[in-house]
Design a protein that fits this description.
The structure holds 2 protein chains of 2 kinds.
Chain A lengths: L9 E5 L4 H13 L2 E6 L7 E2 L2 E4 L2 H8 L3 E4 L3 H13 L4 E4 L6 H11 L5 E3 L5 E4 L3 E4 L8 E8 L2 H13 L4 E6 L10 H9 L6 E7 L4 H12 L4 E6 L23 H10 L3 E2 L6 H9 L1
Parallel strand pairs in A: 1-2, 1-5, 2-4, 5-6, 6-7, 10-11, 10-12, 12-13, 13-14
Antiparallel strand pairs in A: 3-4, 8-9, 8-11
Helix pairs in contact in A: 3-4, 5-9, 6-7, 7-8
Chain B lengths: L4 H10 L7 E4 L2 H10 L4 E5 L12 E4 L2 H11 L3 E2 L9 E2 L3 E5 L5 E10 L4 E7 L6 H7 L4 E5 L8 H11 L3 H20 L2 E11 L5 E3 L3 E4 L8 H4 L9 H8 L3 E4 L4 E5 L2 H13 L6 E4 L6 H13 L5 E8 L4 H16 L8 E7 L2 H10 L5 E2 L3 H15 L3
Parallel strand pairs in B: 14-16, 16-17, 17-18
Antiparallel strand pairs in B: 1-6, 2-3, 2-6, 4-5, 7-8, 7-10, 8-9, 10-11, 10-12, 13-15
Helix pairs in contact in B: 2-3, 5-6, 10-11, 11-12
Classes of the chains: A alpha/beta, B alpha+beta.
């Protein structure tokens, strides 16, 4: 089993005629994901590299029965793209776009609140269930099917964790990038509760970073609800306060959101915290014996 | 993005907020004239982005136009050191000359994003003029918090709750409510990430003013605020950071001697962390981003080696959206260009992994430059720390 994406995923790529959209639609298809087409307003009716292009998500849904959408639309238009997908009945919307204004994300959150849709991201690498489906920008070849779940606010740090897992002979059930923005669709807790219902996930690596309190909230939830081992790493122990470290959400403000405080709360709630980002894979191997 | 106090006050004034009368200037002569226009008494306020200006001697009251001139000539051009500037301070290029109002009470008012709810939250406190973060740490209950619906705006009952919590009544409560409403409107309309009035001041007559104003903006929304972008003051920012931003790079200058070039913010932070764990100190945070062009990578590399404190460079690339061969070509290209002006002697530790990694490693191997290649993050950090300490003669 797995979470979020699998062999039944029917993927639509919004912004497919852009350079990144086309590149990653292709890498997902090559990985084995069923990519049913793409959307670029005004460019419907074309077929590009074997991908059928539609003018709207609604039209694409009528023709393809897509259930997952992946968004590469530029930041000024990305919020609109998310809302369009949600309104058209897509079950899972994965927004890769980085740089969406916070105010736009407030609108998105309000818009999708009562719709039966899950948003992952924005500013995330996507999600992969190794051997079944890749919906995102991660390099597929580093993954292997297995029993360890990964959830992270960072893209490349997730790849690092996966690489380490593969090096110690551990495969992954599903790897989820929840994104580096202050407002996102799916939280650590949301992802952990999906892992909880997946009997094939035997352990989870949770990769957090400075800023906000999402990791702390997840730690408390995990202690009460999740009975399998969780290995944690928090990036940004050396970050100076008040500075935004690349990700819009990665900032220590008002003494809140420090790596130290997060590590402490994680430890207090039974999570195996590693100090070095190079130790994530080894720690999972050690804990799982 | 940050702006100066006088710019924030201009912005708030446009939304109807009561702001003391005043004007900004860069000469002591004009300071005297403005003081005269304001009735002969004024406050001279240094305009730098950092807070805590009063503590550093950057805010002073003048009783006469002559005194205003003397104070302005003292403050203009000074390296103002505050708790937020660092020991080197920040040069004062402009002063705001404002009417001196009598103060009966100082309160705190601010609005920012509450990440938990994903909505704006108004914060208010009777402890005005103080650092709100100190108040939050010492007495969190002293801060009133009201979450705002960003589309419907702040509601009258919320304004009543805030005013009553602050102990305000009558015309003062009315004026404070109007100020809060203006602040919320300005915050939403300008895509701010923080708007703070500290202090919000009440005169002995019960009138309310925004005595100080601070506004930060969401960088991601500045594409739709050309007018605000013009307010950016590059002199307030680190020169290397400004250069990096011109190439769309996320770069933050730090105190160490190991220059870092990494793709992805999370991995960039983790790279800094692991350097520290191996006993070194990162000289910077640098995320070359997902779609970094060869040109951007070159610029990134040049910024790293133009920093005189950098003794070694650690490049840590895990390629997903950024293909490692492209990064490798950028690194080699940058070194070739730099070598044209004389050989580059900086030790460069490279660790590449991910999409097209074989091609990326081949590009590095075939280059004329002698890279120190590492295949793990830990060994890369170890080699970078060793190279930096050898280069420092330690």
């Amino acid at each position: 089993m797995s979470i979020l994406v699998n062999k039944d995923t029917r993927l639509l790529v919004q912004g497919i005629t852009g350079k990144e959209g086309m590149f990653h639609a292709t890498t997902c298809r090559e990985y084995g994901t069923t990519v049913v087409g793409g959307v670029t307003p005004g460019k419907g009716g074309q077929t590009v590299d074997g991908f059928e292009v539609f003018d709207s998500v609604e039209r694409a849904r009528q023709k393809t029965d897509a259930n997952v959408s992946m968004i590469f639309v530029p930041p000024p238009f990305a919020a609109d793209a998310i809302m369009e997908a949600a309104a058209a009945g897509v079950e899972l919307v994965i927004c890769i776009t980085e740089g969406i204004p916070v105010n736009d994300m407030m609108k998105v959150k309000a818009f999708i609140e009562d719709l039966p849709v899950r948003l992952l991201g924005p500013n995330c690498p996507g999600v992969i269930t190794p051997g079944e489906a890749k919906v995102g920008i991660m390099p597929g070849h580093i993954h292997s099917p297995g029993k360890v779940g990964v959830v992270s606010r960072s893209g490349t740090l997730t790849y690092e964790a996966v690489w380490q897992l593969s090096n110690v002979g551990l495969g992954q059930s599903t790897c989820v990038g929840i994104g580096g923005d202050p407002i996102n669709g799916t939280s650590f807790i949301d992802t952990m509760s999906l892992f909880k219902d997946d009997p094939d996930t035997e352990a989870v690596i949770l990769i957090g970073e400075i800023g906000g309190t999402a990791e702390e909230e997840a730690a408390v939830w995990i202690k009460e609800n999740f009975d399998r081992p969780v290995i944690g790493f928090i990036a940004g122990a050396t970050a100076p306060p008040g500075r935004r470290m690349g990700h819009a959400g990665a900032i220590v403000s008002g003494g809140e959101g420090t790596a130290e405080a997060k590590q402490k709360t994680l430890r207090e709630n039974g999570i195996h915290v590693v100090e070095s980002p190079a130790d994530m894979g080894n720690k999972v191997a050690e804990v799982l014996g | 993005m940050k702006i100066h106090e006088h710019q924030a006050k201009d912005l708030l004034r446009r939304f109807g907020a009561p702001v003391p009368q005043g004007r900004v200037t860069d000469t002591a002569d004009a300071a005297s004239n403005i003081c005269e226009e304001l009735g002969g008494r004024c406050v001279v306020k240094a305009q730098i982005h950092a807070g805590g200006r009063g503590k550093g001697g950057g805010v002073k009251v003048a009783g006469t136009p002559e005194e205003a001139e003397a104070i302005a000539s003292e403050i203009l051009g000074m390296q103002l050191v505050t708790p937020q500037t660092g020991p080197e301070g920040q040069e004062v290029k402009k002063v705001l000359i404002e009417e001196a109002l009598d103060i009966d009470q100082e309160l705190y008012l601010g609005i920012t994003l509450d990440r938990k709810s994903g909505l704006p939250v108004i914060m208010a406190s009777k402890a005005g003029g103080m650092d709100i973060e100190e108040v939050a740490a010492e007495d969190p209950d002293a801060i009133l918090r009201v979450t705002v619906n960003p589309f419907l705006g702040v509601q009258p009952f919320q304004l009543r709750a805030l005013c009553s919590g602050l102990g305000l009544t009558g015309k003062t409560a009315k004026q404070a409510s109007d100020l809060i409403r203006s602040l919320v409107e300005a915050y939403m309309a300008s895509d701010a990430s923080l708007a703070e009035i500290n202090p919000m001041m009440i005169t002995p007559n019960g009138d309310v003013y925004a005595l100080d104003a601070k506004m930060n903006f969401d960088d991601n929304a500045m594409f739709r605020h050309k007018d605000l972008v013009e307010l950016r003051d590059l002199a307030e920012e680190n020169e290397l950071e400004v250069r990096a931003s011109e190439y769309g790079l996320n770069y933050i200058k730090l105190d160490g001697n190991i220059g870092c070039m990494v793709n992805g913010a999370g991995l960039a932070m983790a790279t800094m962390d692991i350097i520290k764990l191996y006993g070194g100190d990162p000289a910077n945070f640098l995320d070359v981003g997902g779609s970094a062009s060869q040109e951007a990578v070159k610029a990134a590399f040049q910024i790293l080696i133009d920093d005189p404190s950098v003794k070694a460079v650690m490049i840590n690339i895990f390629g997903g959206i950024a293909r490692t061969d492209r990064i490798a070509r950028g690194v080699v290209g940058a070194l070739e260009e730099l070598s044209a002006d004389g050989p580059v002697t900086m030790p460069v530790v490279v660790r590449l992994e991910g999409t097209n990694v074989e091609e990326g490693r081949r590009v590095l191997e075939e280059a004329d430059f002698d890279f120190i290649v590492a295949d793990q993050m830990a060994s890369a950090a170890e080699k970078a720390v060793a190279a930096a300490s050898a280069a420092s003669g330690a």
